[in-house]
Amino acid sequence: MKFVSFKHANGDVRAGWVEGNNVIDMNYVSEGKLPSTVLEFIKKHDHYLSVVEDLKRHVDIGIFDLEEVELVAPLPNPTSFRDFVAFETHVLNATKRAGHTMAKEWYEIPVFYFSNHHAIKGPNEAIARPKKCVRLDFELEMGCIIGKEGKNISVEEAEDYIFGYTILNDWTARDLQMQEMAVHLGPAKGKDFATSIGPYIVTKDELAPYQVNDRYNLEMTAKINGKIVTEGNFKDIYYSFPQMIERASAEVTLYPGDLLGSGTVGFGCILELGPDVHRWLEPGDEIELEITGLGTLKNTIAKEDIVDNPTIDRLKSSTR
């Protein structure tokens, strides 16, 4: 199934599922038996899924045309957000660009950082470039949503703890990131202003046809202003989500609604592609990420008021 969050005509954010070209308002059609938020649904999804299956047979109210509703982030309020760095090609490319060598420790453990789970953005939402940033980048990733509470989860058990998957764009201010990480902390301010997810959360059973052992054969594509700039495949990931879950849950409890990012697919950002492929992102640019089975996630970089950004021209000339 595909689950979404969308804005109702009165401005409220509602939870629903997708049926063909329609969105079903789960709280309305169930007369309150189902919650009005996706997070609350995930917390008790084992029970709620059976209610959904019963309702699907005779839904005739609370139906909206998918093209006519405003989708927001399918999980607007994840309980936490850990982003891993699980694609070897990305790490090799990024370390080379920074003039470093690959750390041997990367091959010993799946590594991650905590990012801002209060800065989640949805499909078609404008992304504001940080005012001191002139090297704005996208990152093509896949997100995994935890479905039940667990601690010290083994790789073999981890699949049972996954609710579903979504597309994830880990927006990055490269200049802010590199300044901060020079003192061996971060990326923090290089990442905490926005992360986009969506358009849906797709339950793991829908990806079963693409499964190859503990990975998925999913094409991953990024476009900027309608032009394809990179293509990859999720099956090339070095660490699987079950391995990431084992690492994240070591001596720590994971909760329903926790979000894990895969890290960037190889060549899945401008940092790796280089200026010959595309310049850093500018206001007005449209970035479109697509992953097989997960849909398309599109965002535009917000227009800026130059009066409010008097240092932009100076920063551009000094950092390009």
TrEMBL record:
Residues 81-301 form the Fumarylacetoacetase-like C-terminal domain. It comes from the Bacteria. GO terms for molecular function: hydrolase activity. It holds the Pfam family FAA_hydrolase. Gene3D superfamilies: Fumarylacetoacetase-like, C-terminal domain (3.90.850.10). Keywords: Hydrolase. This is Fumarylacetoacetate hydrolase family protein.
